[in-house]
Design brief:
Elements lengths: L4 E4 L12 E6 L4 E2 L10 E5 L1 E2 L1 H19 L3 E5 L11 H9 L4 E3 L11 H6 L3 E2 L13 E6 L2 E9 L10 H12 L5 E7 L3 H11 L5 E5 L9 E2 L5 E3 L4 E4 L8 H10 L12 E10 L6 E10 L14
Parallel strand pairs: 1-9, 4-6, 5-15, 6-7, 7-8, 10-11, 11-12, 12-14
Antiparallel strand pairs: 2-3, 2-17, 4-16, 9-10, 13-14, 15-16, 16-17
Length: 312
């Protein structure tokens, strides 16, 4: 059995106070502020599918604000659409890591760009679904560490409506075995189309991992909660990108495709970019969560330009 990829994370940038909407659920499942009265401790910021350059820029501009407001211990993003709306390249991945991202998860567009193949094998902090075929480039688990706290991350793909070489429900056992007992918390990104697969995986792993977060559909769901066994769960985090389009695509092109049933070249929209994510507050109990807070945040507006008075 392969050993999980491992890296130690040090430091972390700061920023200025944030503005953005959020809603949270505590261990009891009630709505309200994240934490539910728990003593502040480790937390994980997970950001949903980055779409194109606009998604990357939105993340990097929002992240300092979110760090100041929430002080997350770890930052994880799904980056499978960050390069031109499809796939990821080493250049875009390195830009995310340089901006303060600790782990990048992927999905069904992992192999859209061939230049990423060697990077998937050489960089421990970028994951493709663990239930892809073992002959395919990359790996599906890693461990990152900060201040003595070890976080295991698992990336999975759904099997309904998506191509994955093996069942997510059997491969998760192998992935957890790779992580072993020497991790404090575990986050699982289930990149899937079918809500039923994601919900079922959440129940399967309740009490065994800290969080199960769903990605892929680009539409945030309203079911963020901590399950009875202590696992934070949401069916889909949503996307970080343009709300003014259709799941990231220019809306005129998407509508034309649906009206005419003919091929249309899609381009990434730039309109109304938002960051969509969740903040998971870890419990003092290993591999369990105290609260999960949904974060929906518009891209910060640029500062107003000051026009100097005319010299007359």
């Amino acid at each position: 059995m392969a050993e999980p990829q491992e890296v130690t994370v040090t430091g972390g940038p700061g920023g200025i106070p944030a503005a953005g909407g959020s809603v949270g659920a505590s261990r009891s499942g009630s709505s309200g502020a994240a934490g539910g009265g728990e003593t502040p401790g480790a937390s994980i910021l997970f950001v949903g599918d980055l779409v194109g350059g606009v998604g990357r820029r939105t993340l990097l501009e929002c992240l300092p604000l979110l760090r100041e407001r929430h002080d997350p211990t770890f930052v994880i993003v799904n980056g499978e659409n960050v390069a031109g709306g499809l796939g990821i390249t080493p250049k875009t991945a390195k830009a995310l890591f340089a901006g303060g991202v600790d782990v990048i998860t992927l999905g069904n567009h992992t192999y859209h760009r061939r230049e990423i193949y060697p990077y998937l094998d050489s960089e421990p902090r970028i994951l493709r679904p663990a239930n892809f075929l073992r002959i395919q480039p990359g790996h599906g688990t890693c461990v990152v560490e900060r201040d003595g706290l070890r976080l295991g991350v698992v990336n999975l793909s759904g099997n309904l409506y998506l191509r994955a070489g093996r069942s997510a429900f059997t491969e998760i056992e192998a992935a957890l075995g790779e992580l072993g007992d020497d991790v404090d918390h575990i986050l699982v990104d289930m990149h899937a189309e079918a809500t039923s697969e994601k919900i079922a995986l959440g129940w399967l792993l309740d009490g065994r991992v800290t969080a199960v977060v769903g990605t892929h559909t680009h539409v945030p769901t309203a079911d963020a909660r901590v399950l009875p066994g202590g696992t934070a769960y949401i069916t889909d985090v949503g996307m970080t990108g343009p709300r003014g389009g259709v799941i990231g695509v220019k809306r005129e092109q998407a509508i034309e495709s649906l009206l005419t049933q003919m091929p249309v070249r899609f381009e990434t929209s730039e309109e109304d970019p938002w960051l969509m994510g969740v903040l998971i507050r870890c419990s003092a109990t290993p591999r369990s969560a105290a609260a999960i807070e949904q974060i929906l945040m518009p891209r910060p507006l640029p500062p107003p330009q000051v026009v100097p008075p005319s010299q007359g």
